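Structural prep section.
Before we set up the soaks we want a predicted structure of the protein with adenosine-5'-triphosphate in place, mainly to decide which crystallisation condition to try first. Input record follows.
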Amino acid sequence: MSSIIEVRNIHKAFGGLKVINDCSIKVEEGSVTGMIGPNGAGKSTLFNIIAGNLPEDSGTVLLDGEDITHDTPDQLFHKGLLRTFQIAHEFSHMTAMENLMMVPPHQPGESLFNAWLKPSLVRDRETEVRQRALEVLAFINLSHVKNELAGNLSGGQKKLLELGRTMMTDARVVLLDEIAAGVNRTLLGDLMGNIERLNREMGYTFLVIEHDMDMIGRLCDPVIVLAQGQVMVEGHIDEIRNNQQVIEAYFGSAETAD
Ligand SMILES: Nc1ncnc2c1ncn2[C@@H]1O[C@H](COP(=O)(O)OP(=O)(O)OP(=O)(O)O)[C@@H](O)[C@H]1O
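Run finished without errors. Recording the tokens verbatim:
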């Protein structure tokens, strides 16, 4: 396997606080790589840098060997690197189906020029997008709520919809930031099953920040442990759980490594 994402020697400080400290990681293509670490370890900061939401102080991020350090989230979206975001306020007033149909980039329907001159193209494209949205809803088991406003969905259903949005485009790498938080066990099972299927059947690579160790244990291999803005250790979850350094890093924080 080759690296699809490579983070090289990233540094980031907020004022005098060094949060990411010469951090280097590799995410292998086709993997579901987990990232764990005590509160404040710098996991979200590193995610934000990879996803183009936060500038680094120094260092490089590569996607398939291409330097993407200064790409915007929109540019990364077009290159197939996405992160899930909570459904924004304005989207909560749209149905689950409409939320999915909003996603595709370069939708010809958005262009007045196309609407005037190529109405059939717009119609074809809309039919295609609608069809894909229906397939995504079936895949994520939300067909029964397709006409429900996103704001009325349960926490877990919203997470499924967020994952579904990544399926409306041709994603290659998806960054998941604590998607298990507040999701009930049944829907969490659905969510994990979908991540596994997207990985196995559609070749998605995932980088997952998660505090839920059951989810990390079931889905992720390898697991990277971040502490004080650096990689402390990387390996299979069983090695991580028994690693003395990791146990000590968690000791005294709100989380435990078991
Ligand atoms: N925009 C910011 N301005 C100042 N300090 C920040 C900013 N963002 C994060 N920090 C600080 O950087 C440190 C790392 O935060 P980060 O959210 O990356 O950690 P984390 O590993 O994701 O933690 P958690 O598991 O609690 O989400 C923390 O001390 C945090 O307070």
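Observations: Strands lie at 3-14, 17-28, 32-36, 58-63, 66-67, 81-83, 173-177, 205-209, 223-227, 230-235.
Flagged for discussion at group meeting.
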